[in-house]
Amino acid sequence: MTQSRRIFRSLLRNFLQAIPTIFIIVTLGFFMLQLAPGDAADFMAAEAGSATAETMAQLRSAFGLDLPLLSQLGSYYAGLANFSLGHSLRYGMPVSELIMQRLPGTITLMAAAIVLAVSLGLLAGTVMGMRPGRWPDRILSVLSLLFYSVPAFWIGLMLIVFFSIRLGWLPTGGGYTLGAKLSGLDWFVDRARHLALPALSLALYYVAIYARLVRASVIEAKSQDHVRTAIAKGMGRYRLIRVHILRSALGPITAMVGMHVAGILGGAVVIETVFSWPGMGRLAYEAILSREYTVLLGILIVSALLVIAMNAIFDIVQSLLDPRVAVR
After folding, report:
1. Residues 86 and 104 in one domain
2. Where found, per UniProt (predicted)?
3. What value does the CA radius of gyration of the chain take, rounded to a whole number of Å?
């Protein structure tokens, strides 16, 4: 079977597996969200300052919140069958449009965090593995343990204090400079400055994991016969690392990144809240406060699909990096 056919079958299998996964996520998520006190009507009344019992009843009736739970769930499934994620009471717009406004921000943050985590993990792990037991290995090991032990939100707050408040180099939050009409390179630089601290805060935890993984892979690769032969033939250090050592380390890292996609997406909820980043994580936090269960279910569905899609992509990337790993 050709590689392209295997890739197609892998994508088709992931798509078919996504259907029961979404069904289970929606069902469990719906009933778990019902355990929280209050609903969107209660929040709207509290936000308005007061509301009569008749007004509350009208709100619940208008949005189907007074129906039995099974009827509400059946109505939601009927909407999904028509490719509708429902309507947001607070924002007054379809949930799908609301999520699509925030989805690019979350994908950008996740992509930047993954690139940073893999790049810094490869660099630190290679340095540690090439000189095990030496002072670079010891220092980077301590830093890795530190980043692994400290919560991401605390790292984010410390980065704000140091780089934003003390040095004034980077903004404290947001996705762009409000009121600035930028274009071209200036627009890109402004977005990159706002993205730097959230992406770094989200990435540092995974840098520690990937650095230790690369260190072990480098030490193992150095003991292999083909690497010893290359060293005996006088191959330069940097070419040796690039051609023989890093190639063997990329496979395990790719597999781990695929496993960590869900964790990175979950961590984005906290980081987006700390940095006021306009993404799905912050939207989920706002939806929890306002008891917008329809919005939360929509975010759950889109998040699950995003995780499934990224895992499928990383499976394919891993098979391309390492021919010994076949796409099934």
Report:
1. no
2. Cell membrane
3. 24
